[in-house]
Amino acid sequence: MYAFTYERPHSLSDVAKLIEHGSQPLAGGQTLLASMKQRLASPEALVDLSQVPELKGITLNGSSLIIGAMSRHAEVASNELVIKHIPALADLAGHIGDKQVRAMGTIGGSVANNDPSACYPSAVLALNAKVHTNRRVINANDFFLGMFSTALESGEIIKAIEFPIPKKAVYLKFKQQASRFAMVGIFLAQTAEGVHVAVTGASSQGVFRHAGLEAALNKSFTVEAAASVAIDASDLNSDIHASAEYRAHLISVQTQRAVKYLL
Length: 263
Description:
CATH architecture of the domain at 168-262: 2-Layer Sandwich
Number of strands: 14
Low-confidence stretches: none
Oligomer: single chain
CATH class of the domain at 168-262: Alpha Beta
Structural class: alpha+beta
Strand order of the largest sheet: 4-5-10-6-7
């Protein structure tokens, strides 16, 4: 690991100033610190976000849950508001990594990193969430731009994520056993706008909504409707863990299971 300076400010305004001068934000550190240890990243300065109160807390605001960016996975999994209003999100958070990862990793860090196999982005996309930053509010459909790429600009950090409460939702993950990342994860939500199906882990470009499955399920919310949709494998990821064709099969099977769960 290379030498670097370390700051731990107590206000969002101080964080913004440090970032504008080149400091790298440090949330839970589950990706950044590992990259630094492997010398794949060498930031000259880190700004620790853990002591900034504006980035914490989970609250109910009308028909939405507001989850602070520095909320740890374990906090999201055990929070009474999340369990009551969006139990699928609590379940998702409770199965990320292992206990150590859940104790340190944050929802804001995961969403900002946009790993193509991460779980949270599927919830953000399926629930049509809004990403609140220190500058603006970004709709979920405009936020994820591809593998490890988002709409966040230089100096912009996530403050909180606003999740509209769905009628029903479920997250099913077929995990890669060693990393516990999603080989294929399906977040299925019945929302005010209709049925949304977000897929993570299957594409090298990251999370996406499956238009074909959504169209079929909005017409007929049945297992048979989900099973009738042909899943194109041509744009899916193929690696040592699973072929593109196998991931296509998993998308279909996991979606059918998700529909059955919600019926």
